[in-house]
Amino acid sequence: MDRNTVAPALKTRLDEIGLALLMILTGSVLLLPDQLPSGSWLIGVGVIVLGMDVVRFLVGITVSGFSLIVGAIALSCGFSSASGVDLPVFAAMFLVLGFVLLFRALFQKGELTSLPTK
């Protein structure tokens, strides 16, 4: 099956499942803040995002490079927080987002169009 012909209903269902898992994780962490180690929420977010990407790949849906990067950052920041290493999550997200946008603009497939002239 071609990755671009997967039913939109399946894509929507997977998005809903991922969002539901994130809400359940967030609610659980908010209910049990003192019982969970530091970084638990970030580790959970990373596992859910990367896990959803694996499911997308296995069912033939194109996986977003951005979600892979966000999942990897969340997971690494969560593990660093749990181990006591201070990794600046906010700065890392801006750096990764900036590089992704830059490389996407520089290496985008297709023709460049010129600016309109008068």
List the helices and strands and how they pair.
Elements: H1 8-31, H2 40-59, H3 65-82, H4 89-106
Contiguous runs where pLDDT drops below 50 for at least 5 residues: none
Our count of domains comes out at: 1
Q: What is the element string, with H for helices and E for strands?
A: HHHH
Tally of contiguous helical segments: 4
Number of strands: 0
How much of the sequence lies in strands comes to under 5%
Residue share in helices?
Answer: 55-70%
Largest sheet, if any? none
Give the overall silhouette.
flat
Question: What value does the Rg take, in angstroms?
Answer: 18 Å
Report mean pLDDT, rounded to a whole number.
Answer: 84
Secondary-structure class: mainly alpha
Instruction: Quote the distance from N terminus to C terminus.
Output: 47 Å
What does this 3D model show about the protein?
The protein has one domain (8-104). The chain is built from 4 helices and no strands. The chain has helices at residues 8-31, 40-59, 65-82, 89-106. Helix 1 runs antiparallel to helix 2 (40-59), helix 2 packs antiparallel against helix 3 (65-82) and helix 3 (65-82) runs antiparallel to helix 4 (89-106). The mean pLDDT is 84.
